[in-house]
Amino acid sequence: MKEIRYKTRHISLWIGLAIVLGVVAVALFAPVLAPQDPQSGNLVMRFRPPFWQERGTIAHLLGTDSLGRDLLSRMIIGTRISLIVGFAAVALQGFLGCLLGLIAGYWGKWLDSLLMRLADIQLSIPFLILALAICAVLGSGVVNIIIVLGVTGWATYARIARATTLQQKEMTYVYAARAIGQKPFKILFKHILPNIASSLIITATFQLARMIIAEASLSFLGLGIPPQIPTWGGLIASGRDYLTTAWWISAFPGIAIMIVVLGVNLLGNGLRDVLDPRGK
Q1: Is 274 in contact with 13 (CB distance < 8 Å)?
Q2: Measuring CA to CA, which residue among 127, 196, 186, 187 is closest to residue 162?
Q3: pLDDT tens, 176-226?
Q4: What is the 3-state secondary structure (H, E, C) of the chain?
Q5: Residue ranges of the domains in the chain?
Q6: Residue 20 CA to chain centroid, in angstroms?
Q7: Which tens digits make up the pLDDT trace of 234-245?
Q8: What is the pTM of this model?
């Protein structure tokens, strides 16, 4: 009975985990799962609707685009780009933010003031506008978009890491580590970081959903991944001129983004329930 109550309480964790693992599996085996070549077009088959509608065909389950390319295959391949950009951007901004937040919280004084003022400046600029400006300078590309999203998202981690470090550095175990002569960086990464990791993991999970949406937004505006590479945002953009005649080109990639973001957010909520002591 206790086990049933536990699983019911954390049902969002299991649902979110199942969705995320399913999407990761699709990304890993994308070339195998894609029923057709995502770049191969056939003008005779252009604007074919999903298979359940009139003129639809089993060969193109979700229909085709303006060049006759299979939409399902392009969506499957686009899964890789969304996850690569999302995970890499979260890893980069998490590394930068955690490092700067730990340093600011542990040493304090002028270094803390300097780093937090930089974070205030970064947070005062709307995220998407800042990303658009940097993308316009650096240009499109997977590496550039990862750098842009990573550099523009560090402040959230820095503030959380700083706040929790300020609390942890006053704990007895930190004083004990200092007393036996351990160096500051060893104290930070061996003792303090493991104790604040739960908050950072939860933040990273929610940021993953945000990065997936950000990549899709930039690709939709033409400043993210190059148009020749299938991405969910690019697919939505390619169908915006045909919403009344070929709604499926934009609708299905949009639904895919919604499902993935929902799964990541459910996973984040579940992890918060499990890792946050106040939720127990």
Answers
A1: yes
A2: 196
A3: 888 888 888 888 888 888 888 888 888 888 889 889 888 888 888 877 777
A4: CHHHHHHHHCHHHHHHHHHHHHHHHHHHCHHHHCCCCCCCCCHHHCCCCCCCCCCCECCECCCECCCCCEHHHHHHHHHHHHHHHHHHHHHHHHHHHHHHHHHHHHHCHHHHHHHHHHHHHHHHCCHHHHHHHHHHHHCCCHHHHHHHHHHCCHHHHHHHHHHHHHHHCCCHHHHHHHHCCCCHHHHHHHHHHHHHHHHHHHHHHHHHHHHHHHHHHHHHCCCCCCCCCCCHHHHHHHCHHHCCCCCHHHHHHHHHHHHHHHHHHHHHHHHHHHHCHHHC
A5: 11-27+61-275
A6: 11
A7: 889 888 888 888
A8: 0.84
Q: pLDDT tens across 63-103, in order?
A: 888 888 989 999 999 898 889 988 999 999 999 999 998 88
Q: How many CB atoms lie within 10 A of CB 224?
A: 30
Q: Please say whether the structural domain 11-27+61-275 has been given the CATH code 3.40.50.300.
A: no
Please give the Cα distance from 192 to 124 (Å, whole number): 29
Residue with tokens 């949406």: 213
CB 203 within 8 A of CB 98: no
Give CA separation, 175 vs 107, 112, 148, 179, 185, in Å: 14, 20, 39, 6, 14
Residues 6+ apart with CB under 8 A from 137: none
